[in-house]
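re: the backbone from monday

yeah here it is again, tokenized this time
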């Protein structure tokens, strides 16, 4: 309500005090209304020493073509056929970190519909809890093969990987790389590469634990990562707590 000059004289003392009290109440409620409880699920938010961490909800869905993203500089075609990629095959030592089980459900998407993509070779690779990739000379990990491997999709189009929740390195949000080769033994086929991303509130919780906490808080969230922005929320992995770690299922659609 806006008062015109002279209107105040029409208000008695009790009415003026009542109006003032209402305005103050609205101001107090407005200043307290922004709080939101943190949650380990997608589209959650939390607060940290560097501000509020927010993630949009995952829009990953079946029979939708997945956005292709850059391969990046750290792909090495090791041809390691294994589901559990945590170890270095030379030593058997597993990279420390929070367990992460990922299932990728592949489909071929075309004008006539979509169906399971069987027999495809799917590579997965990512950095460890401290941001290092294996077999990279600049990171002094040549000859090591941790957190790399491939699987062949089954009749239902699925592959499964056991790994750890990724760490971070400068300039990138937390992510995992994957590559799909639809006809790995044939002369013709499609090669498709993309990345997976994670809820920031969940990452805050995971990275507060050892060994991730040794590195400090990441410098780039998904909202500031240009590669994530070009792919969007369909690449966010919906995760649930599972066996001391997390598990998730992602649908990956490849153009037929």
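seq for it, each position gets an aa:
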């Amino acid at each position: 309500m806006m008062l015109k000059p002279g209107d105040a004289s029409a208000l008695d003392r009790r009415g003026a005090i009542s109006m003032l009290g209402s305005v103050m109440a609205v101001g107090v409620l407005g200043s307290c209304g922004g709080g939101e409880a943190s949650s380990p699920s997608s589209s959650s938010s939390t607060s940290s020493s560097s501000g509020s961490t927010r993630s949009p909800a995952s829009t990953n869905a079946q029979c939708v073509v997945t956005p292709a993203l850059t391969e990046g500089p750290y792909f090495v075609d090791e041809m390691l056929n294994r589901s559990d990629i945590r170890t270095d095959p030379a030593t058997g030592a597993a990279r420390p970190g929070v367990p992460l089980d990922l299932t990728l459900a592949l489909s071929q998407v075309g004008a006539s519909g979509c169906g399971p993509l069987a027999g495809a070779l799917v590579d997965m690779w990512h950095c460890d809890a401290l941001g290092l990739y294996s077999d990279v000379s600049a990171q002094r990990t040549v000859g090591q093969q941790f957190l790399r491997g491939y699987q062949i999709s089954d009749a239902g189009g699925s592959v499964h990987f056991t790994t750890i929740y990724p760490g971070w390195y400068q300039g990138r949000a937390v992510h995992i790389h994957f590559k799909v080769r639809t006809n790995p033994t044939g002369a013709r086929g499609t090669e498709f590469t993309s990345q997976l991303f994670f809820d920031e509130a969940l990452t805050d919780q995971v990275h507060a634990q050892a060994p991730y906490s040794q590195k400090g808080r990441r410098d780039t969230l998904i909202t500031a990562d240009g590669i994530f922005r070009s792919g969007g929320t369909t690449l966010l992995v919906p995760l649930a707590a599972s066996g001391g770690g997390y598990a998730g299922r992602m649908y990956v659609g490849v153009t037929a």
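The mean pLDDT is 84. The chain has one domain: 58-255.
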